[in-house]
Amino acid sequence: MRGMSQVATAVVIAASVLAAGCGLQSSTASGPAVAAPSARPQTTCVTPKLAAPGRTFTITDKDNGKVFCLVTGTGVFVFLHGTPARMWTHIRPDSTIIQPRPSGVMMLALGVTGGYFVATRFGQATLTSTRAPCVAGSGSAAPPTVPCTAPSLFRVTLVIRGRA
Q1: Domain tally for the chain?
Q2: For residue 152, what are the β-bridge partners?
Q3: 5: which DSSP letter?
Q4: Residue 41 neighbours by CB under 8 Å, 6+ apart
Q5: pLDDT digits over 31-42, tens only?
């Protein structure tokens, strides 16, 4: 009887894991799928390998939901891949500890939203962007030109901890 209980528990756990994956978006012709990050950020930081000599690193839509630890003075390039019909919104920091800066080194490909930020003080900041679930057609009664999906949310957390 005890063996059956353990098997039943394993089946329930496996079904829960599979059901949790159903909330993720599937890939469509409009670009790669991006899952909405959980409400609670990860507890561990990813310490990026910095490109010399400018002490910069790059974040993409594949890094959605991650937490990065860095030091003041670090530059952060962000590139979010969408399509011309379904672009990501402007990337916004929620704190002044990470400052947007102009960068003459990037020429964005069609459909890519980008930004460059510099960590200026100790603390924590979140960079966010959203992407609409679908694009309206040319007329008000026209169906969407792209299949509708759930809205996409991009969010990464930056923890600035030390001096360079």
Answers
A1: 1
A2: 131
A3: H
A4: 65, 67, 157
A5: 444 444 444 444
